[in-house]
């Protein structure tokens, strides 16, 4: 236990707005003392959230806002140099991420809403 109270969940969007293998929903949350960009996507019916920050260079992943997935929805792609991440886990699949995955966030669907929070 670090003694730091858990972060309050952020309301990301209503459940219906997060489409299966569709565009991600961008939001911001407090992480490590900073207000940072993040996104949620839905894969296999499950809402998942990550910081919107490539592990190669800490810049946002999407080139068109909300467009995180490749055309086949098999991976999250960084628009800048093509790092590839598993959308189910954030694990690096190839490219400049060199084994470093995305920062996962807590994510839960409750009462018709998507909620997210910072996790260690
Ligand atoms: S900044 Fe994402 S691959 Fe280089």
Please, could you describe this protein's structure?
It is a single chain. The chain has 120 residues and is mainly beta. It has one domain: Rieske Iron-sulfur Protein, CATH 2.102.10.10. 0% of the residues lie in helices and 39% in strands. It contains no helices and nine strands. The strands form two sheets. A six-stranded antiparallel beta sheet has the order 1-9-8-4-3-2, with no helix packed on it. It has a three-stranded antiparallel beta sheet with strand order 5-6-7, with no helix packed on it. It is globular and about 40 Å long. The N and C termini lie close together (11 Å). 28% of the residues are buried. The model has no long low-confidence stretch (mean pLDDT 93). The chain binds FE2/S2 (inorganic) cluster. FE2/S2 (inorganic) cluster binds next to loops.
Structure keywords:
0% helix, 9 strands, 6-stranded antiparallel β-sheet, globular, mainly beta, binds FE2/S2 (inorganic) cluster, 3-stranded antiparallel β-sheet, 120 residues, Rieske Iron-sulfur Protein
Structure in a nutshell:
By secondary structure, this protein is mainly β.
What would you report as the Rg, rounded to the nearest angstrom?
Answer: 14 Å
Number of domains: 1
What gap, in angstroms, lies between the N and C termini? 11 Å
CATH architecture: 3-layer Sandwich
Q: In the CATH hierarchy, what is the superfamily?
A: Rieske [2Fe-2S] iron-sulphur domain
Give the SSE string: EEEEEEEEE
Helix content: under 10%
Structural class: mainly beta
Mean pLDDT: 93
- The low-pLDDT segments are none
Q: What is the total tally of β strands?
A: 9
CATH topology: Rieske Iron-sulfur Protein
Query: What is the overall shape?
Result: globular
The neighbouring-strand order within the major sheet is: 1-9-8-4-3-2
The major β-sheet equals: 6 strands, antiparallel
Our count of helices gives 0
The hetero molecules present are: FE2/S2 (inorganic) cluster
The CATH C-level name is Mainly Beta
Strand content: 35-45%
